[in-house]
Design a protein that fits this description.
Blueprint lengths: L11 H11 L6 H4 L10 E4 L4 E4 L2 E3 L23 E3 L9 H10 L17 E4 L4 E2 L2 E2 L3 H8 L12 E6 L2 E3 L2 E3 L2 E5 L7 E4 L4 E3 L2 H11 L2 E2 L1 H6 L6 E2 L11 E3 L2 E4 L6 H5 L1 H14 L11 E5 L23 E6 L14 E9 L7 E3 L10 E3 L6 H18 L8 E4 L8 H11 L1 E2 L31 E3 L14 H16 L2
Parallel strand pairs: 3-4, 13-25, 14-15
Antiparallel strand pairs: 1-2, 5-18, 6-7, 8-11, 9-10, 11-12, 16-20, 16-24, 17-20, 17-23, 18-19, 19-20, 21-22
Helix pairs in contact: 9-10
Length: 492
């Protein structure tokens, strides 16, 4: 599985939509953007063992130290936060071709001066969770900064098997305990919280743990011999994910990175460079450029399907550009140089499910993403394929591209649809399986303060609480949810 490390926040309209859905204005962009620390002073409070500052983003220089003028808007970002992020740290020969295409085809593929500031439309320079040529993760940043506190313990090789009911508070079952084990045959252990359990197991792990704990659809739990404690049919439903469609072209020359990735000697030299100085091609993310686009307003699909995007400046599909063979299911050919344009369906209307395969916590759950189940999703991917062909038809590519690979050459609706189905997969951005909803709504799994509905003592803080998938890579949006969760929990 690839980690593209793309770091932005989706559209500002995603957060405004979340505020409308939940009835909580605190989720609106005007509030959420402050957790980036893009404006005003950092928000710091004295905690029991240290000072905590609520500021997420730390924009740093790219690994190669190049002049980034015109590649982002500094005023939209913070340099004082927790997580280092940067612009591409290794220039590629196709960079100038991409920018030239935004100039030649500016009506359809306009240049975006900043892909991470809440206004996503257009094509610009990628921002990634990379600092000093290495990946920035929650482990290397947030966790590492507190790992030595005496009130922080991290257990390795410990899998949560269920939440433990500890009583009844306010007429609701209370779950202030967690059961875990090191393996299927290992003994279980219980730990207990004085106030709350925070469940952050992700869009797969969270609904699985809830259902194993007797929280879910009564009929489904009964079929797995699990007593129902909280009957909530929303658990594990409403799964929404971004579909990834890889598209490849055979190109001239040796400018692509394919030979580097094939040749053990060349790759070994690049690895030595990275190990010595954290520079070179291995200090970079996958795409140097990324773009977010909408279907035209007069697209015939809107005659039968309401626009599913969060607003008129939120995107329907994404394209990112890679100077090598990039494919989720087909291996790199033994010879040849390639250009890859990856398309991602950003505003899907298909919804999937996650269900238990059994009551064994060590058995993987049954995941049905239900991709391409709607006319809108099929139409959007079909038209995105036609759009990227127009992109590669620009003059900037005329002396570089030879031909599309395989069935990407299809022209008819039927041919393109068959091609899409044959090579599409997930980009691993599932959300919605523990959706946030208004406090008094009959649907949803958590309330706007992320408290588990129908129960006491549990909050969910991860991607599963998003009731729809944001129109961008989910890393940034999930960090912002976590930042606000910390603010809510601590009462800031």
């Amino acid at each position: 599985m690839s980690d593209y490390m793309i770091h932005h926040y989706g559209s500002s309209e995603d957060y405004d939509r979340l505020a409308r859905i939940t009835g909580d204005s605190g989720w609106a962009w005007r509030n959420m953007k402050h957790y980036i620390d893009r404006v005003g002073p950092s928000i710091c409070r004295n905690e029991l063992f240290s000072t905590v500052c609520f500021q997420h983003e730390k924009f740093v220089a790219p690994a190669d130290g190049h002049d980034t003028t015109g590649q982002y808007i500094p005023s939209l970002h913070s340099t004082r936060g927790v997580l280092p992020k940067s612009l591409p740290g290794f220039s590629q020969s196709i960079d100038s071709r991409v920018i030239a295409t935004t100039q030649e085809l500016s009506a359809e593929f306009p240049f975006s001066p900043d892909t991470g500031g809440g206004n996503v439309l257009g094509l610009g320079w990628t921002q990634s969770s990379i600092g000093g040529g290495t990946r920035s993760s929650s482990a290397t940043t947030y966790l590492n900064s507190v790992i030595n506190r005496r009130n922080v313990d991290v257990l390795l090789n410990a899998q949560v098997t269920k939440l433990v009911r500890t009583g009844t508070i306010g007429g609701k079952p209370s779950f202030r305990g967690v059961q875990f084990a090191s393996g299927p045959q290992a003994p279980t252990n219980n730990v207990f919280a004085r106030k709350e359990v925070i469940l952050s197991a992700g869009s797969v792990g969270t609904p699985q743990i809830l259902q194993l704990s007797g929280i879910g659809d009564r009929t489904e739990l009964t079929s797995k011999s699990i007593p129902t404690i909280v009957n909530n049919p929303s658990v594990g439903k409403n799964m929404s994910d971004h579909l990834l469609l890889p598209n490849n072209w055979l190109v001239r020359g040796t400018e692509s990175l394919d030979n580097l990735l094939r040749d053990p000697v060349a790759f070994g030299a690049a690895l030595e460079q990275w190990q010595a100085s954290k520079t070179g091609p291995l200090a970079n993310g996958i795409p140097n450029h990324i773009g977010f686009f909408r279907l035209p307003n007069n697209s015939p699909i809107f005659a039968t399907t309401p626009d599913p995007a969060s607003g008129p400046t939120a995107s329907h599909w994404e394209m990112f550009v890679s100077n090598f063979w990039l494919h989720s299911s087909l291996p790199r050919p033994a010879t040849g140089s390639y250009l890859s344009l990856i398309v991602v369906l950003l505003s899907p209307t298909s919804r999937g499910t996650l269900k238990l395969a059994s009551n064994d916590p060590f058995q993987a759950p049954l995941i049905d993403p239900n991709f391409l189940a709607t006319d809108f999703d099929r139409y959007t991917l079909r038209e995105s394929v036609r759009a990227i062909k127009r992109f590669t038809g620009a003059k900037a590519w005329s002396d570089y591209i030879i031909e599309p690979v395989g069935d990407l050459a299809a022209q008819t609706d039927e041919g393109i649809d068959a091609y899409v189905r044959s090579v599409s997969s997930t980009i691993f951005h599932p959300v919605g399986t523990a959706s946030m909803s208004p406090r008094d709504a009959a649907w949803g799994v958590v309330d706007p303060e992320l408290k588990l509905k129908g129960a006491e003592g549990v909050r969910v803080v991860d991607a599963s609480v998003w009731p729809f998938v944001p129109s961008g890579h989910t890393q940034g949006p999930v960090y912002l949810v976590a930042e606000r969760a910390a603010s809510i929990i601590r009462g800031y």
